[in-house]
């Protein structure tokens, strides 16, 4: 048994033992070092971050750097930004191209992989299902192929609450049925299944993080949301207020909620980034596959978010009521108990006002950063 796990970890040193509350785990000395030094920084580790030039990926790179680690960012820059890579080594490659991926990563070793690279827009996914399956599912299959070929053995996957579909409970725990109502959600669920199967069949372990609504920007406004086109509620409302975007349309006010607009659980991007570090830390001494929700556990309607945006901006924001957007469940609120218990993670930006305020600072400082406008 020990030899099997020993091999699985790819180690050739003496093993240690530790109790984790889920049975006795076998630890290598390297993992013990990893565990000890993770939060305090120092003895930096090196991680591959696919999609590291994107919104949540770049904030995770930043959090890793703050902990004394270094990264290689893998991105095709189809939606990511070079300014978001923060001086890290960059591999520009399309995950759909297995040959190019193999060539780019042959012989590399990483202490873990954070896999963010994916298409992530619900409406676009329903219009272009082939693109989403190729990009998200084939891309993940290729990444895992190369991971196994090179002996990497840990992955933290960026997943989504969209895997659940329409809720049948007030808050969503990980055991809630998975019936995605968008192609985006279907592809993320397929990515999860592929990863879970990889963990079952190979010496490979993974944490899959299901985000609810990512929002906000870095506390120092050095990073933030920069999609083109922008479709998410908070930046769309703030751009409308600043006069830098299109007018705001609320997609439906006839949902079965108190004010008729959709309810979402908004979670600050720095809290999401931090959860990835906790997840990788967890993989230092846990084998297998686990999925965890990431949210604040509190829902806000579109109109409530708009009120918070108006408070941050100090002005009213005009809007019109439009049709429902296909693929939008009425309510999505997380039960993130597992992430708190298992990953030892806690969100720190817990009010919608604080989340929106950080997004507003980012929007206001955008124009002074010429490098971001190109
Ligand atoms: N909304 C508007 N007007 C807009 C933009 C959004 O009314 O201009 C509404 C949407 O209809 C929705 C809410 O604001 O009710 C939030 O929409 P976002 O586009 O900001 O975010 P989503 O809820 O669509 O997206 C999130 C995650 C996805 C996940 C999806 C599941 O970002 O990863 O929830 O539905 F797939």
Structural write-up:
- The radius of gyration is 20 Å and the shape is globular.
- The model is unreliable at 1-37 (pLDDT under 50).
- The strands form 5 sheets. The chain has a 7-stranded parallel sheet with strand order 5-4-3-6-7-8-13, with helices on both faces.
- The chain has 374 residues and is α/β, with parallel strands linked by helices.
- The chain has a domain at 38-216 and 267-296 and 335-351: NAD(P)-binding Rossmann-like Domain (Rossmann fold).
- Helix 8 crosses helix 12 (352-365).
- The N and C termini lie far apart (55 Å).
- The protein has helices at 2-8, 29-37, 55-66, 98-105, 122-127, 129-150, 183-201, 233-242, 269-283, 302-313, 337-343, 352-365; strands at 16-19, 24-27, 46-50, 70-75, 89-92, 112-115, 154-160, 205-211, 213-215, 248-251, 263-264, 266-268, 289-294, 300-301, 319-322, 331-332.
């Amino acid at each position: 048994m020990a030899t099997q796990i020993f091999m699985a970890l790819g180690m050739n040193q003496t093993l240690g033992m530790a109790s984790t509350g889920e049975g006795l785990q076998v630890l290598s000395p390297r993992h013990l070092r990893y565990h000890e030094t993770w939060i305090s920084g120092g003895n930096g580790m090196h991680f591959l971050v696919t999609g590291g030039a994107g919104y949540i990926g770049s904030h995770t790179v930043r959090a890793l750097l703050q902990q004394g680690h270094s990264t290689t960012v893998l991105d095709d820059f189809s939606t990511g930004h070079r300014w978001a890579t923060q001086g890290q080594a960059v591999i520009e490659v399309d995950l759909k191209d297995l040959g190019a991926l193999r060539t780019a990563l042959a012989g590399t070793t990483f202490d873990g992989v954070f896999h963010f690279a994916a298409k992530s827009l619900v409406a676009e996914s329903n219009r272009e299902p082939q693109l989403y399956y190729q990009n998200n599912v084939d891309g993940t299959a290729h990444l895992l192929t190369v991971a196994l070929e090179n002996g990497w053995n840990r992955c933290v996957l960026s997943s989504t609450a969209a895997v659940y579909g329409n809720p049948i409970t007030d808050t969503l725990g990980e055991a809630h049925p998975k019936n995605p109502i968008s192609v985006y959600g279907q592809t993320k669920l397929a990515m999860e299944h592929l990863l879970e199967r990889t963990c079952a069949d190979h010496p490979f372990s993974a944490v899959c993080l299901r985000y609810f609504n990512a929002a906000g920007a870095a506390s120092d406004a050095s990073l933030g949301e920069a999609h083109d086109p922008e479709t998410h509620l908070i930046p769309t409302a703030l751009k409308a207020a600043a006069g830098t975007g299109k007018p705001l349309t609320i997609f439906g006010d006839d949902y079965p909620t108190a004010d008729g607009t959709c309810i979402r659980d908004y979670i600050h991007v720095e809290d999401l980034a931090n959860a990835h570090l906790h997840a990788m830390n967890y993989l230092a001494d846990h084998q297998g596959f686990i999925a965890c929700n990431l949210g604040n556990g509190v829902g806000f309607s579109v109109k409530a978010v708009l009120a918070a945006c108006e408070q941050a901006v100090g002005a009213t924001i005009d809007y019109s009521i439009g049709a429902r957007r296909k693929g939008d469940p009425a309510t999505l609120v997380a039960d993130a108990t597992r992430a708190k218990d298992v990953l030892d993670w806690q969100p720190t930006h817990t009010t919608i006002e604080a989340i929106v305020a950080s997004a507003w600072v980012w929007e206001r400082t955008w124009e002074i950063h010429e490098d971001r406008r190109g």
